[in-house]
User: What shape does this take?
Amino acid sequence: MRLASPVETGPPTSVNRFLLPHERTVISVRMHPAALAGPLILAAGGLLAARKLTSRSARPDIAWGTYLAFPLYFLYRAAAWPGTYLVVTGGRLVLVQGLFSRTTAAISLDKVTGLALQRTVLGRLLGYGTLIADGPGRRRAFRKIRYVPYPEQLYLEVSSLLWREDMDETAQPTYGDEE
Assistant: This one.
């Protein structure tokens, strides 16, 4: 089973335009569909609230007019989801998101000093996680990358890219205070 999109296909052209000509795509993944659960729950809760308010209100059109914002927000997020990608190249992490205005954030792998993987119970059940990247300045876009599919595989791949220069096969590990 192939978990991440292969290099042959690469990211779509809407994402590929943000990559440098010499960059080689290692991994490109779309965010997990669970990213749409929050807006969907908000729209469903708004529907229940609007129904309850219309039964008690003299002006039900105000409740339904206010409710209209919730499904529109869900539809916006659902339309933006297919274009939200995390692309890992040989030298950078690139996060591309947005529908009408495209937001792109990138950080050099040289700047990342630590990488952590966080998985909630629901994330383990549904197959997503949160990558937490530490670096200088802790840029908000890369502090937490939520709803990453195949989190263990992605964590291992990015870790191998981060510490590939540090891994010297001839070096012997030292334990404790040995000199």
